[in-house]
Design goal:
71 residues, two-stranded antiparallel sheet
């Protein structure tokens, strides 16, 4: 139901912000703030303790997405 989805959304947002505050970032709207991948990248770096670089390559026939982890 709607009430339980709202509780899950708030709980997940609180959990994300608990970790993101270590990098001085904040998740305000979970549906919109993940769209460009920036906050997700910060969260993954904080949780993994590694530097993460995203590379995207576009061509006429395909789309490639690479993630590199650095120590």
């Amino acid at each position: 139901d709607i009430h339980s989805k709202d509780i899950q959304k708030k709980s997940y947002t609180r959990w994300c912000n608990f970790h993101l505050k270590k990098g001085q970032k904040e998740l305000k709207d979970i549906l919109n703030d993940w769209k460009d991948g920036t906050l997700l990248n910060h969260l993954l770096q904080i949780l993994s303790h590694k530097k993460i670089v995203f590379f995207c390559f576009f061509s006429f026939f395909s789309f490639f997405f690479f993630i590199l982890f650095f120590r």
